[in-house]
Amino acid sequence: MEQKWWTLIAVCVGIFMLLIDITVVNVALPQIQRSLHSSFSDLQWVVNAYALTLAALLLTAGSIADLVGRKRVFAIGLMLFTAASLVCGLSGTAVTLNLARAVQGIGGAIMLATSLALIAQAFRGRDRGTAFAAYGAVVGAAVAVGPLVGGAITSGIGWRWIFFVNVPIGIGAAVLTLTTVAESRDPDATGVDWLGLTTFSGALFLFVYALIEGNGRGWGSTEILGCFGGALVLLGAFLVAELRQQRPMFDLSLLRRPAFAGASLVAFTMSGSLFSLFLFLTLFIQNVIGYGPFQAGLRFLPLTVPVLLVAPIAGRATVRVPIRLILALGLVLVAVGLVLMSGLGGGSGFTHLLPGFIVGGIGVGVVNPAIASTAVGVVPHNRSGMASGINNTFRQVGIATGIAAYGAIFQHEVSSRTLATLTKSGQLGAIVRGTHGQLQSTFASGSTGRLAQTLPPTLRNALVGAFHTAFAGALNEILLIAAAVALVGAVGGLVLVRRSDFIAADTSHAAAPAAA
């Protein structure tokens, strides 16, 4: 087999592993919560620790790879990801798990930032299009099968194995990379924007931390207000730093192009709407409806499989239909899907979610190829790498901030609704008054089982009924908010993206599908 095909295999194995880890973890969260006695904030950090470091380091990783060698950096990313996966599986506390997830995100950022460059270096002409098509199929497959794989592993041998399975795969991919992939660098690379990295990642972390911890520590507390203020200051410093550098990691001038700004907004709002709700939907399906991890994974297939099936059709349509219409249609479908999911009650079953899952999945499948082609199609070819990196950064920032923001609303609503119902009934008044803070965390995470088992049957039924109703009501609220976010993205894509903004491209430089 020619060396270029070994390069494609090594890259696709690494990308499949890092992308499947985004979706595979969601289904395992309830079991992780019970195993590590995690709070609701801990569960948010399991997802966000990964998304934050992935978003913060994606652009910098690409610069480092251009400077010191893409093969070397990709292999380092694989080894970091693999080692962190081992630590995740061995974790005995939520803190250890979340720190290891952050390191996983660093490895993931390195692999994602260098993957397309390695393929572009290895392939030319028609073969490049074939390679990018294979890459896109791997991306779609990872999204589609992630929840099912996560559910099967979690149900069969436990949540720790969703991380342990990465170890032999990662070692094999690293060996393959080091022995078969050709090294490449950017001869024009001049350095790394460390100031941009520090200010951007600091601002993002402080903002997300404040959103996640605000309910528990008090929104008016010095700590939370200080975090919001610090995030604002660091964001300002980041903008100044990027504007003053000749080769910034985030070229803000690209956002002056309306079509690129529109593609970035669409990427952010899509991730900040439907994808950010996977955590909450998983908790509802398992902790309220009562399905196990594997059954829950199966029930996510109506959402994830349409993404894989519709994307190729939507990709072909981009050459015949104005892309702004495709972007707007896709996000409108996402919004409609989220509205269809709402209206849940404490006794609702999965069939209530099914129509929304299908419509939302179709919407994502419509949007994904159009985002990818827009992000790289409205900038000169020599800026396509940064454009793709910025677009993927907006996706990860959307997930991280969406989970944090919805979590703040959800945590407050589910606990206050449950406590209000129990207090009004008078059945659990003494328990509510005595352990108010503990109950808030218990209700928000969906882990009422242990508390319910300590109560007599009458009180147990009252607790479970109040909790299920409150959980459904809180989920309804964030579903509708997420639908509004998707509609904002639809309007932005429709208004900002214009056919005249696209730059004629050399057909040998085919655009690759979005990586997340």
Give the SSE order as H and E letters.
Answer: HHHHHHHHHHHHHHHHHHHH
* Termini separation: 29 Å
Helical stretch tally:
20
Radius of gyration from the alpha-carbon trace, in angstroms:
23 Å
For this entry, what is the oligomeric state of its chains? single chain
For the sheet with most strands, the description reads: none
User: In percent terms, what proportion of residues is strand?
Assistant: under 5%
Helix content: over 70%
Q: Which regions are unreliable across 5 or more consecutive residues at pLDDT < 50? A: 433-437, 505-512
Shape: globular
How confident is the prediction overall: mean pLDDT? 85
Structural class: mainly alpha
What layout of secondary structure does this protein have?
Layout: H1 3-36, H2 40-68, H3 70-90, H4 94-122, H5 125-157, H6 161-164, H7 166-180, H8 194-217, H9 222-244, H10 258-271, H11 278-289, H12 293-299, H13 301-317, H14 323-341, H15 350-377, H16 384-425, H17 429-434, H18 436-445, H19 449-453, H20 457-496
Helix pairs in contact: 1-2, 1-4, 1-5, 1-7, 1-11, 1-12, 2-3, 2-4, 2-8, 2-16, 3-4, 3-7, 5-12, 5-13, 8-9, 8-16, 10-15, 10-16, 10-20, 11-20, 13-15, 14-15, 14-20, 15-16, 16-18, 16-20
Question: Would you give an account of this structure?
Answer:
This protein is an all-alpha fold. Helix content is 80%, strand content 0%. The protein is built from 20 helices and no strands. It has helices spanning 3-36, 40-68, 70-90, 94-122, 125-157, 161-164, 166-180, 194-217, 222-244, 258-271, 278-289, 293-299, 301-317, 323-341, 350-377, 384-425, 429-434, 436-445, 449-453, 457-496. The chain is globular. The relative contact order is 0.13.
